[in-house]
Amino acid sequence: MKKLSVMMMGLLLLGLVLASCRATPTPEPSPACPTAQPCPDCPTPEACPQCPECPAPVECPKVECPELPTGVTEIPFAEMWAKSGHADYEAEAFRHWDEEDPKQVPPSCAKCHSETGYLDFLGVDGTAAGTVDNAAPIGTVVSCIVCHNQATVAKDSVRFPSGSEVAGLGAEARCMECHQGRASTASVDKSIADAGLADMDTPSKDLGFTNIHYFAAAATLYGTLAQGGYQYEGQAYDAKFDHVEGFDSCVDCHDSHTLELKTEACRECHGEGDPKDYRMYGSAVDYDGDGNVQEGIYYEIETLQEKLYKAIQAYSADVSGTPIVYDVQAYPYFFIDSDADGTTDPEEAVPPNGYNAWTGRLAKAAYNYQTSIKDPGAYAHGGKYIIELLYDSIVSLNEKLSSPIDLSQAHRMDAGHFASSEEAFRHWDAEGEVPGTCTKCHTASGLPMFLKNGVTIAAKPSGGLNCATCHDDLKTFTRFAVDEVLFPSGANLALPNPDNNLCLECHQGRESTVSMNKLIAGLEPDTASDKLRFLNVHYFAAGATLFGTEAKGAYEYEGKEYAGRNTHVEPFTTCTECHDGHALSVKAEDCSACHTNVESYADLRNIRMSATDFDGDGDTTEGLAGEIDTLRESLYAAMQAYAKTTVGISIVYDGLRYPYFFADADGDGKADTDDQGAAVRFNTWTPRLLQAAYNYQYTGKDPGAFAHNGKYIIQILYDSIESVGGNVNGLTRP
Fold this sequence. Notes:
two-stranded antiparallel sheet; two-stranded antiparallel ribbon; about 725 residues
């Protein structure tokens, strides 16, 4: 028996020695080879009483580690990693469970707070991937093997707490798995539902605070795609913040080992200074309403946070009936303000004094406040998404405050090109792909792609346009040069300033006289046909309006003459001479030099350069915009009369709802609805009615048409009224 024991002990020691040497995972660089532990001395065999002689002693085999690749003498980047937060063995993120019983990291926390837990989540340890099956031992950090293993090399998607999944990520998926937060819009809604709240302003002891957790950078970055913030019903939110190529992911902007921001690379475009002072040229509005549009986005957010906290405190006192205070360092963050002095005293910031008079409305706003605070880099990760969350939270609380927070000078969103929460950029979020026919003007990369290749392909939805959309060099900020632009009519046109031809690439509409004539060819003017459908010129076809009959963007009636390009006085003849290139606003102050009745943007509608009463209302002092408005009203009335008498079905229009024209069989002025309550589209078109409807839509979808080429617009309105049998007596055609 003793001989067997000796042999077993030897084998056990051999196994322990072999286990101490790990094979280096492929394809990652091998770590430094640890010094092999000396073999223990073999015990002296005792004499076996039953045996005449003892067997030879068991020899301990020589243990050798596999050789490191040629030239590798230490673990790459180990020194850089050792100085990062991921390697801080003393940090609360890794020490929090030291005094727990048992001393282990629970499965709900282990994924991001231990080496073992992350490997468990990946399934590297042999357990199921996508979940953490076991508690993890304390004393580990985010080590090399966490990010460098077989599973992470292949990983390119992340599922957020909202349930949304983002795919096609690449290396940043490793970062986003932990830097995504632990809650979402859905979490807050569930907590309110679980508390049984029907009234959002009634306090409930069953409702608590929902905490997004720390450093949820990925949730900020991906905005509405992740729904990390609380998104109010009926509001649209930014999606992923699209920066320029090369600086558009976690590892593009942060060193993957030190975690530090690559500030030297930032300075190539943003110049010297603190990143907190950075502000894109597209961020031309005053978000926080303090009058400063030069400060960094960080400070815009900071002021909105102050406003929201003030609103939270006012609401808690006025509506919840229990004053509230906040402490970013103390769990559970929101506390009862026992002395109602508005400040957080040390004795108040303790768990037993956690705030307990939550209403649904307050819980939503407080969640967004915490979300904005707990991502210290939110201003860079997704500043506009955070601004929207803060703004909407204030608006919500204001509904119940006796003294609402002043937002009269604040702005929720940017100008059109950068209003990335709006339909022009968010229309395709559900599909996850913008069709190739739309990418040129509705994604940041579409226009450069078109200019380079002459075609576009499908692309992921983007967060509005960015610098690289229009600028071919991000150091000198020169614009792409375009000699001429092909319009939907087939005309090749150009402005004197080649830079401004860029604007024409998108602001040209998508239809024309040519496409309309092709659609109605061979059909009787007043006979309805199921071959017809409404042609939509699309939005903001300012370039087509500007060029008039040269572009034929509106429908031009045969035998009529139309105005060509509107040439204003120098130097106001092109897009950027009249509009700010980033804010897109009209330079109204420049107009006042000649148009003395213009002092503000609103006064632009008062401009007129003719004494002719075009709309026949007897007012020759109103602006040209007013003349056009009256003519559009006349055309709409004429179209309705024509549809009722010629087709037998009345027609109604809604400029904000696709497909814009709807059937009104009962003639009550409202769109008919189907069994599901949806508006019934108008589909009993005659060629004549379709021509007029196209022009009606055209004049409405270019809100600056009166300035771009008012004479051309009046001509097509006059001809459309006349075509459908409207009364043109008293009207004047230019």
